[in-house]
Amino acid sequence: MGNYPYFISIILFCLGCLCILTQHNLIKKVIGINIMETGIFLFYVAVGNIRGGVAPIYDPSLPEGILYINPLPSALMLTGIVVSFSVTAFALAIIVKLYNFYGTVYAPDIMRMR
Amino acid sequence: MHLWDTMPFLLIIFTVLTAFITPMFARWKRSVCPYITIVAVTVTFIISCILAYRVFGGEIMHYHVGNWPPPWGIEIFVDELASMMLLLLTGCSMLIILFSIKSLPKEIPPAATGWYYTLFLLTLTAMMGMVITNDLFNLYVMVEVTGMGAVGMVIAKGEKRSTEAALRYLMLATLGSGFLLFGIGFIYQVTGNLNIPYIAVELAAVREQYPYLMWATLSFITVGLGVKSALFPLHIWLPDAHSSAPSPSSAILSGLVVKVYIVSLLRIYAQVFGFEVFLDSYMRYLILLLATLAILGGSLFAFVQLELKRRLAYSTVAQIGYIFLGIGLGTVWGLTAALLHIIIHAFMKICLFLSAGAIYYQTGRKKVTHFSGLGYQMPVTMAAFTVASLSMVGIPLFGGFITKYGLAMGSLEANNPYFIILIVLSGLLNAAYYFPILWQAYFTSGHDVKMTMDKVPFTMLLPIVLMAIGIIYMGIFPGGPLSFIERVVIRVIL
Question: By C-alpha distance, which of B350, B190, B170 is closest to B272?
């Protein structure tokens, strides 16, 4: 059971995908994007982590032979978070525009009004 | 470090900087923006010409960003495939911007002009970065920037239809890049590297130990980049987005953006997994199946569309199928045809979409049923349109024939002659939806029509005519491009 973060990340990813593909409310679709990306972030951070490891900063007071975690995946995920943030902002801006056109954020209504 | 060696980096940084300068100039005077953009893209075109000259002289160029050596730093890498794509991207973008100088003010709100060129340049930069990067996470970032820029270029029109199409495009593009990022995560977990040559070495050693993980990785990356390059069942965003965008955007989206993802996918297959691993895996058969469905399905959907740009957009879905068919066949001829089709389809689709833009500019017509007499009102545009349509159908002497011939040779090489039937059938289907347009334009206007020249500015006609000349050149003298691409295939992929 030591690998449970991977399971959780896969579950989150699948939930997010399902949310994007099946939800009719556009805001919920955007939330789905965020859930999906959170699953990916969790996966990356779990890849870099070591149980019992410390932050990769040299500290003379720490005992010899201590494990340091891999900082690279966490650093990569900073970029991932920025990308996810900007996609969310962009999608919400487009939804605001659609709301101004149609007066609703419910996708089937928009399809009907077309 | 010498200036010569920093050239691949200059290529990217120059367009990024220009991208953020154009909105400032737009506050002063809107009409200068396209000229600044075209100067920037011309400079990158010249740089990519020099790079191509050096690369085909036998020198592979590496550049370490920030002087960090490869396993940790980002490496920029220009090989034959990259320099071919750089030439295509910058050359075609130059002509599209030339077209947009006069056509864009009619299609988007005037306040958006400066920002439109920002988006254009950012998309171009990210596409170039995607082609020349040698780092998988960097590839993901470039994919994401291209996606956002492309969505921005769709929405620039500000109408109801384009806004809706843009939202759907953004959702599916994000889904695709999520899959891609997860696939890269798997690779990173197994190999601990992000630099492509290092991954390849590690992966070759541990591939046998994790067969299921390899399948999962291959599937995730194929789905991720497949959504973005509109492989058949994942193409649902494409027709709306490409047909509701302004004409220059449609041209760059259909002609260049979807191809760059295919090149990245091909590079991942060939350089990360190894091309023979891809050919042995189930993924090859899946891609052949989806390509077949794309060729048939895209053509059939295109057949029932009455709006010209929608018809062209569905035709893109079918033509993407050709490129994937060539990759799936996996022989020298098949891959050569796939890469050649990337170039020729870019020429044809840009020519067709720009012609559609010119027709809309002069007459305001969008439906193919309203094209009566257009062959006499706009002879130059319609001549170019005819050349591109004939090339799409695959008539000899036009570029499209060469790729169809190459694919047929590839399917013989792969011992799979059934695909020749598919290729002939798809040529007929293409004829079924392109020839009615030509018939409508030339033969349905009665006898008393006068021939007049196009009332379209010269800067709009020139790109269309140049693209048509390019198609004919490719069709009559295919030897030069073919040997060029064969070298790319042998050196980079196989």
Answer: B190
Scanning B229-331, the segments in alpha helix (DSSP H) are 238-244, 247-252, 258-267, 275-280, 282-303, 308-329
Instruction: Name the residue with tokens 């010569």.
Output: B4
Q: Is A90 on the interface with B (CB under 8 A)?
A: yes
Non-local (6+) Cβ contacts of B404 within 8 A are: B394, B423, B427
Residues of A in contact with B141 (CB under 8 A): 79, 83
What b-and-e string marks burial along B177-195, b requiring 16 or more CB atoms within 10 Å of the CB? Answer: bbbbbbbbbbbbbbbebbb
Q: Which domains does chain A have, with CATH numbers?
A: 4-113 (1.10.287)
Q: Which chain A residues are closer than 8 Å to B148 by Cβ? A: 86-87, 90
**Window 158-217 of B, Cβ < 8 Å to A:** 160-161, 163-164, 166-167, 170-171, 174-175, 177-178, 181-182, 185, 188-189
Average pLDDT, chain B: 89
Contact check, Cβ <8 Å, A91/B182: no
Compute the nearest-CA separation of B370 from chain A (Å).
23
Q: Could you give the CA distance from residue A44 to residue B79 in angstroms, rounded to a whole number?
A: 30
The Cα diameter of chain B in Å comes to: 76
Q: What is the pLDDT of residues A17-70, one digit of tens each?
A: 999 989 899 999 999 999 999 999 999 999 888 888 888 888 888 887 788 888
Q: By the 8 A CB rule, do B487 and B80 touch?
A: yes
